[in-house]
Every structure is written in structure tokens, then in C-alpha cells.
Amino acid sequence: MNITLVTFAMAVAFSAVHIFVGQLRFLDRNPRSRWLSFAGGVAVGYVFLHILPELGAHAGTFEEATGLDAQLAEGLVYTLSLVGLALFYGLERALALSRDERMEREGRDRPHHPVFWLHIGASALLVGLIAYLLNHREDPSAAGLMLYFAAMVLHLVTADFGTRADHPEIYDARGRWVLAAATLGGWALGLVVELSEMAIGCIFAFVAGGIVLLVLKEELPEDRKSFFLPFLGGALLYAALVLGESWLAAG
């Protein structure tokens, strides 16, 4: 099987999420769709069973590449994750403040256009890096790639649904196409640019922080009225798949 064609198909699937998430009408409901809570659970499972262990592996890479003490190298990796989390938290707060200000002044429940486009730009960076990692992952196995794809496609459904809800007019007109182009561009960049293991570790750590924040942002607020059992089911199902894959690999 040609791995390049497989990862290209996955990148196209990611792009399709950006383009067609607005057509998934069954997700647009209050209380929150159980499917979104399930997707959030899968993403949380990915965080704990893939992201955290892989961050530990990248800490070893940082230690070898920089000659730093093991504890300091590990701290550096997690600091990069914290930077990713803080950046996306800041963007989410900026969106919320912009919406509140515009609602108070104009009676429109929409953020200002420059703030929303700043959010789209940061999201484009994140999805481009996610697509880049399709071709450069710590776990190169077929099972590892499929688990990564499954977790990321569900994460993108959740994240894109939340982004579109902030300003559906701009998202549908132009924003979704920017995200789709960034995804395919990130995948293509992964074919022609092979970064060092340390640089890959930096990218992965930053992406990890962004994913953690977006998962928490979509699932935890009280006004989301999320469902615990679908969330738990998604997390447990993903955990079972990861543990099963590990057991088969060990056998």
C-alpha cells in the first residue's frame, strides 16, 4: 500500500470536515449533540494515551539534541505545549470579548471581523501542522496512523463546529476554504520538507497544547450542556483501541 496515497486521502478527509461541517445539521442542537460529546471523549482519550506519552518520548529527543539535563529537557517540551494552550486560550478569550462588545454596541452576537480572522489564521496553522504530522509521526505503524487519523478527524469536527458557530457567515463564505487549503498545504509540506526530530518534537508539543485547550473549551463550559456518558464512551472506546493495538504489537 502506498503510504503517500493513504495520508493524502486522510488530508482530504480533514479538508472535507472543514468544508462540510456546516451541513451536519444533526450536530446543531441545544442541548449539545451527543455525537460532539462522543468526539470530545475520543479526543481526550488521544490526549492521555498518545499525546502525553509521545511528549515524554520527545523529551528524550530534546535531551540528546541539546545536551540539557533530562528534567530540564522534559520541562522545555511541556512548556511548548503550554505555549500552544495559552495561545489558543488567548484567542478564545479575544473572540468572547469581541462578541460581548459587539452585542452591547450593535446587538449582533458576532465577533469583529479582524478578531475572527485572527482565530481562523491560528486555526489554519494548527490544522496545517496536524496534516504535516500525517507524514512525520513518532509511531510510524499503520495502526498508529489510523488511530491518529480517527482521533484528529473527530477533533476537527468538534473544533470546526465551534469555530463556525462564532461567525457562520464568514466561515461559510471564506473561512472553511482557508482551513481546507491549510490542511492540504500542511500535508504537501510534509512530503517535501523533512524537519529534524527536535523540530518535529516542537511541532507536536505545540499542537498538543492547542488540542488540549480546544477539547476542554468545547466540553467543559456549563452552557454547552454536554452529555457525560457519550463523552465517557468515546474516551473508553479510544482507550480500548489503543490498548488493543499495543497488546497486538507486543504479541
Report on the structure:
With 251 residues, this protein is mostly helical. It has one domain. The protein has helices at 3-20, 34-66, 70-106, 113-132, 142-166, 168-192, 197-219, 228-250. The longest helix is centred in the middle third of the chain and has 37 residues, at 70-106.
Give a brief outline of the structure.
The chain is mainly α and 251 residues long. It is 81% helix and 0% strand. The chain has one domain (3-17, 35-245).
Oligomer: single chain
Distance between the termini: 23 Å
Number of strands: 0
What is the count of DSSP helices, taking H or I runs of 4+ residues?
8
Q: What percentage of amino acids are in beta strands?
A: under 5%
Low-confidence stretches: none
Domain unit count: 1
Biggest sheet features: none
| Shape estimate | globular
